[in-house]
Amino acid sequence: WLWRADHYDSLNSTPPIDDARTIDEELRCDHGLVVNGDNVIMYGLAVEHHLKDQVVWNGENGQVLFFQCEVPYDVAPAWAEKGYVAYRVADDVRNHSALGLGVYSYFRDHEVWLPTAIVVPEALEGSIEQPFVVFLSGHGGINTTINHHGPGVGFKRHFEVAYLNNLCTDQCHNSVIFPIPVPMPGSRHRPWLSVVLVALVAFCIGVGLVYFGCEKLNALRSRNDP
Q1: 3-class SS of residue 194
Q2: Which residue in 121, 130, 59, 64 sits closest to 97, CA to CA?
Q3: Cα 152 to Cα 64: distance, rounded to the nearest angstrom
Q4: Residue 188: is its pLDDT beyond 60?
Q5: Alpha-carbon distance 47 to 76, whole Å?
Q6: Of these four, 68, 98, 105, 166, which has the most CB atoms within 10 Å of its CB?
Q7: What CA–CA distance (Å, rounded) separates 151 from 133?
Q8: Which of 54, 66, 119 has its CA nearest to residue 89?
Q9: Among residues 113, 151, 116, 115, which one has the least CA distance to residue 130?
């Protein structure tokens, strides 16, 4: 987990602040990960809040299995206008694959719209499988998923997940998308309640069957008693 702090203990403040918010691009760190070597494989990569591209991949034959990334909270609209992204594969890379790249937006302080979350050479788009974008909260959002196409999030102004399903035939490649809104935490949508109700109904049915089964067995026994 390669993290630029979005909060910190400010011991130099008067009085000291135990949990100060990072604001206005302080605590500078440009990138979370820059890969220049070949044949690098990453499992469970998490990179968050850096001030330029979160990941830059320059090496050949790279592989990533799971990527989780929150873009920075404290940037202004000019940050997105500079073309920064969460995951960038260099233009001259010929071989790279990734599975399950997730990019999350929470632009806490300003109305920022990230034009696209992921940028790779066009020839490698098909090797980036199941990328998705998430709107957590805040302002702005993400316009597109990869190379300026695919679904975006933030337009509904509530927690939202959108997937680009590119594991399909050539006929539907890059055309079947599944934007899936997810209820915000604390909302009235309680899926656990449905599970409890179903379990309760099943329990009642089970008790009823046992009861009537015992009654029938007792009736048969009474008939056979001399």
Answers
A1: helix
A2: 64
A3: 22
A4: no
A5: 20
A6: 105
A7: 8
A8: 119
A9: 151
Q: For residue 88, give every residue at least 6 positions away whose Cβ sits within 8 Å of its Cβ, in sequence order, or none.
A: 53, 55, 56, 57, 118, 119, 120
Say which residue the tokens 């990179």 belong to. 47
Q: What is the pTM of this model?
A: 0.70
* Alpha carbon distance 109, 105 (integer Å): 12
Q: Which of 48, 70, 125, 160 is catalytic?
A: 70
Instruction: Give the β-pairing of 7-10 and 17-21.
Output: antiparallel
Q: Place 11 in a pLDDT band, splitting at 50, 70 and 90.
A: low
**Bridge pairing between strands 55-57 and 96-105:** unpaired
Residue 86 CB coordination number (10 Å): 29
Please indicate whether residue 70 is annotated as part of the active site.
Answer: yes
Question: Contact, 74 vs 50, CB < 8 A?
Answer: no
Residue 1, pLDDT score: 83
Structure tokens at 167: 């594991």
